[in-house]
Specification:
Blueprint lengths: L10 H9 L3 E6 L13 H16 L6 E3 L22 H17 L5 E5 L5 H15 L3 E5 H4 L1 H7 L11 H10 L6 H4 L21 H4 L14 H19 L24
Parallel strand pairs: 1-2, 1-3, 3-4
Helix pairs in contact: 2-7, 2-10, 3-4, 7-10
Length: 268
């Protein structure tokens, strides 16, 4: 199995991957509270592990290098609980643009923003579209739990989708690094409930102190197992691998606008 982790390679080795027209995956995550029982590294751990497993799955037919995780996300809604570091949108956009320019300078022309944090979903969709148009290269964004939503729903017992510090995320920790789970805190980790706002047509800023009062947890971590975590990680990796193998996602944008152009082409 070839080494797919960027930070473990030498510069000449990375240049060889660029010559193969490899995709560069940037796991975009967060450093934020995950209740009393999970470390603040949760999204970064999950996102990085999923990208590595996906890159290994496609090593023979869709060469992919995985960058170290971008642990700063948009997490201001978790600040009331402590332990959280957050970026604003403009800073996040600027950092990812710097990554995109850097990989282009290294000879790469494909960037996959693989997201593992709910607060990054809409920002990354905008960033991917704008960067792809500006730089004239495919920039794809996907959220790992959404990419494998159907498979994850079939694995979980107490919830229909990944929530926060929940059955799914606790299972993933148990599979990846079980010693980091504060098992004595799991029983008391359930929050006092709160509104579910993700599917609403009306949006505002919602603090997690409103959505998960008391503990900052949404979902039931008591049902977590390492076996579920392995199955979820496999499902996410397989979903990401399908995206990496999809030629439609990696075509160069055919309507590219750059600041040097006087105006966009007229719509057909």
């Amino acid at each position: 199995m070839p080494e797919v982790r960027w930070e473990r390679l030498t510069a000449p080795e990375i240049n060889e991957w660029a010559a193969r027209d490899a995709v560069v995956m940037l796991p975009v995550a967060a450093l934020e509270q995950h209740g009393p029982h999970l470390p603040v590294w949760t999204d970064s751990l999950i996102g990085h592990a999923a990208c590595i497993r996906a890159a290994e799955l496609v090593a023979e037919d869709a060469p992919t290098l995985v960058l170290p995780p971008m642990w700063q996300g948009i997490s201001e809604h978790h600040l009331p609980f402590g332990g959280t570091i957050s970026l604003d949108f403009r800073t996040m956009q600027a950092v990812i643009a710097c990554v995109a320019r850097s990989i282009r300078a290294c000879g790469f022309r494909k960037l996959f923003l693989s997201n593992s944090h709910g607060g990054n979903i809409e920002p990354l969709q905008v960033i991917a579209r704008e960067l792809g148009a500006e730089m004239g290269m495919p920039v794809v964004a996907a959220t790992v739990h959404q990419a494998a939503a159907a498979a994850i729903a079939g694995i979980l017992e107490t919830q229909s989708a990944t929530q926060h510090a929940c059955e799914a995320e606790t299972s993933l920790w148990l599979a990846l690094d079980p010693d980091q789970v504060r098992r004595d805190k799991v029983e008391g980790a359930l929050s006092n409930g709160g509104p579910s706002v993700g599917g609403s047509a009306f949006q505002r800023f919602w603090s997690f102190a409103e959505r998960a009062p008391g503990t900052g947890v949404r979902g039931d971590p008591r049902a977590a197992t390492a076996e579920k975590g392995e199955r979820i990680l496999d499902a996410i990796a397989e979903a990401l691998a399908r995206g990496l193998r999809d030629p439609a996602l990696w075509a160069t944008p055919d309507d590219v606008w750059t600041p040097g152009r006087a105006q966009r082409p007229a719509a057909q």
